[in-house]
Amino acid sequence: MDEKKNQPVEGQPENTDRKKLNRRDVLKSIATIPVIGVFAWSYYKKKKGERLIKRMIRDELGMEYAPPVFNTKPVSGKKIRLGIIGFGIRGPQELKAAGFVHPTWIDEVREAAEKNPQDKRYQDFMEQEDLNIVFNGVCDVFDIHAQKAIETAANDKREGSEGKPSHKVKRYRTYKELLAAKDIDAVLIATPDHWHAPITIEAARHGKHVYCEKPMTWNVPETYVVRDEVKKSGIVFQLGHQGRQTESYIKAREAVEKNLLGPINLIEVTTNRNSPNGAWVYPINPKASQKNIDWRQFIGQAPWHEFDLKRFFRWRCWWDYGTGLSGDLFTHEYDAINQILNVGIPYSATSSGGIYYFKDGRTVPDVQHEVFEFPDHNFTLMYSASLASDKNRGKVLMGHDGYMELGSTLNIYADRESTRYKELIQKGVIVPSRPIYSYTPGRKNTDAITTATEQYFAGRGLLYTYRGGKRVDTTHLHIKEWLESIRNGTQPSCNIDRGFEEAITNQMGTIALREGRKVLWDPEKEKII
Amino acid sequence: MRFDKNDEYRKMMKSTHSNFLPLQLFFLVTLRVLIGWHFLYEGLVKLTNPDWSSVGYLLDSKGFMAGFFHSLTFKPAMLHTVDFLNEWGLILIGLGLILGIFTQYSTLAGILLLALYYLSHPPFPGLTFSVPAEGSYLIVNKTLIEMAALIVLYLFPTGNKLGLDILFTSTGKKKNG
Questions:
Q1: ipTM for the whole complex
Q2: Which residues of A497-528 are buried (b: 16+ CB within 10 A; e: fewer)?
Q3: DSSP string, chain B
Q4: Alpha-carbon distance A399 to A340, whole Å?
Q5: Mind listing the pLDDT tens digit for each residue in A211-247?
Q6: Could you tell me which residue, A509 or B67, shows the higher pLDDT?
Q7: From-to residues of CATH 3.30.360.10 in chain A
Q8: A104 in contact with B, Cβ within 8 Å
Q9: Which residues in chain A have Cβ-Cβ distances shorter than 8 Å to B175?
Q10: What is the pLDDT of residue B54?
Q11: What is the per-residue pLDDT for B131?
Q12: CB < 8 Å to A445, chain B
């Protein structure tokens, strides 16, 4: 083409008053259109790889991208009358999940929401479903906590300080009196660990349904009694592993069932905390004293000790009342794995650890490892915990074909040496460093491959709270499931059998640690040996 | 090229004939197409991912404009609009730059969008973000450079010299008669 013909001389005003286009103008106008063609072609090639992965996951393996389907029926049936025993830290959290908070909390979050529209605590709580329950009785050995419990349990209308108590809630001095009350159908147990079993047993004998915090028991012998009494009485028992309601765990179970990982041979679960609160060094109420704490009742079946505020408020630090890392934190991890894989009780347990950082007089270790063998399932479950480092190591399920990183989100990566994904890896369609499947709860849908940015946000809990429904508290869902089981006579997800497995497993780990030996389980005789 | 007279600049903006040397025009158009490609792909990735939302990005905003970007997430309807405008904004700006259609408007819109990205995540000392930068930046990052490049393209328009804008300019009324 003759470039010079139409080229104006530089610096001279050019002619713009032409009436029609010449062929040259047309060519110049469409000169960059081929770029769109190149773009479309490369875009298609890129998308094709993603489609191939999706097709394999969905069509060949049958793994759904959609969220699991839940029963979202509103609560029905008659009002259930409840009591709560134990109102320290977890008690108020349970009551909030059940729809009851202290009026001063309403004042606080309402004001916070006015100042900062991003603060959704008030809105979330007010939108939380009403479970059609009433609290008639509370019990706590510390007067100040008991008074708070009364005021919280009476706040039916979710009001601030301006409201009035809807009804009179009775404070019982002992759990036995509360469990004998005729106007109570079911109880929430949020006491220290050494009280879980005695109260559950007593409740079952009175025919009261039980929602009990984890771990189910404090020692081995009482574990059998709890199971027997619960089964004999026919009460509905739910153990407080609210992770049962976590969407990503439910999807994880599906992924394992659909064999996305191939044969799983190692599972790593961890605890990574690094704060006084995370290490059970809770604040001590300055108003607490021997005068307003029923110390003898607190001690219960624990070995006698003189009155000690540290032991009362930080009971988790002592074997006398708590169950250590194994009972307090490993149990959540174990139950998640039991939920995903139905592992049951392991064949053996070994453990080691020590008090390496929090040398504050505690008897339970702040660093501990436990190794459980499951030869029937061909895998090892390894638990590793530190209360003095918060490097997040997450939860990982490792299989021959891939591994799964599980938290609030779920990511599955293909293994470089996988048999199943070999072909796609060789073709370059699957890149082992990028997930072949990822799932972020609260999203309408999921994507085989999302951008690095999205992965990053999702892993840090910056979730898509404004899409695909509201944010809900898992404990709320877990309590709701229990209440619906009571109403319908069905079994909840973390029932007495799952509780028994949880209790035996975590105590095998504790015995292995404290006795420095390998602990075995005899499934025939149902005995720890 | 001389820009000492406003009317001369205006003429250059409107003219279908190039005041540029061929190589100058070639690289100005190349720059325009490259930036357009980048916009178009960013937009399509977001549009074709049904789960994409700007909420995480907006909530991660830091610096003196953070309050404004956070406020965009407060209402679902507002967030929805922001997502929609971002997705389609990127795509249309990308097409505009590649094809050279409504080039000046596309360029201005691109500058605005990049300015918002830059201000929402300014690479200032002392600010850290959830998503680590893929390179090392101090005050100047690639967003800022891309924005400056678009300003250059706005001042040296090429849509009416190589691009569909020619069709609009040429069939228009008599100009500069």
A1: 0.88
A2: ebbbbbbbbbbbbbbbbeeeeebebeeeeeeb
A3: ---SSHHHHHHHHH-SS--S-HHHHHHHHHHHHHHHHHHHHHHHHHHH-TT--SHHHHHT--STTHHHHHHTTSSHHHHHHHHHHHHHHHHHHHHHHHHTSSHHHHHHHHHHHHHHHHHHS---TT---SS--SS--BSB-HHHHHHHHHHHHHHS--TTTSSTHHHHHHTS-----
A4: 14
A5: 999 999 999 999 999 999 999 999 999 999 988 888 8
A6: A509
A7: 54-65+245-477+504-528
A8: no
A9: 16-17
A10: 85
A11: 74
A12: 50-51
A-proximal residues of B, 65-94, CB under 8 Å: 70-71, 73-74, 76, 79
Highest mean pLDDT of the ranges A320-329, A454-463, B133-142? A320-329
Q: What residues of B are in contact with residue A118 (Cβ under 8 Å)?
A: 70, 73-74
Rama region for A13: left / alpha / beta (φ>0; ψ in -120 to 50; rest):
beta
Minimal Cα distance from A439: which residue of B?
A: B51
Residue of B nearest to A20 (CA): B171
Chain A residues lying within 8 Å of B162, measured CB to CB: 28-29, 31-32
Burial class (CB in 10 A: 0-12, 13-18, 19+), A255: buried
Residue-level pLDDT at A245 = 83
Whether the per-residue pLDDT at A73 is higher than 80: the answer is no
- The pLDDT assigned to B12 comes to 66
Span A458-476, mean pLDDT? 52
- What's domain A54-65+245-477+504-528's superfamily in CATH? Dihydrodipicolinate Reductase; domain 2 (3.30.360.10)
Residue ranges of domains in chain B: 28-170
User: How do residues A3-25 score in pLDDT, each as one tens digit?
Assistant: 444 444 444 444 444 457 788 88
Minimum distance, in Å, between the CA of residue A185 and any CA atom of chain B: 41
Mean pLDDT of chain A: 90
Domain with CATH 3.40.50.720 in chain A: 80-242+481-490
Q: Which of residues 30-49 of A touch B (CB under 8 A)?
A: 30-33, 35-36, 39, 43, 47
CATH superfamily of A80-242+481-490: NAD(P)-binding Rossmann-like Domain (3.40.50.720)
Q: How many residue contacts between A and B have a Cβ separation below 8 Å?
A: 142
Residue from A386, A86, A346, A330 nearest A214 by CA: A330
Task: Indicate whether B173 pLDDT > 80.
Answer: no
**Is A17 within 8 Å of B174 when comparing Cβ atoms?**
yes
Mind listing the pLDDT tens digit for each residue in B14-34? 666 667 899 999 999 999 999
Q: Is the pLDDT of residue A116 over 60?
A: yes
CA distance A410 to chain B (A): 15
* % of chain A surpassing 90 pLDDT: 73
- Chain B neighbors of A47, CB-CB under 8 A: 48
H/E element, A104: helix A103-115
Contact yes or no for B98 and A35 at CB 8 A = yes
- pLDDT number for residue B4: 54
In chain A, whose CA is at the least distance from the CA of B174? A17
φ and ψ at residue A395, rounded to 5 degrees: -125, 125
Residue partners of B117: CB distance under 8 A and separation at least 6: B143
The answer to whether A453 faces chain B, any CB pair under 8 Å, is yes
Q: CA of A118: which chain B residue's CA is closest?
A: B74
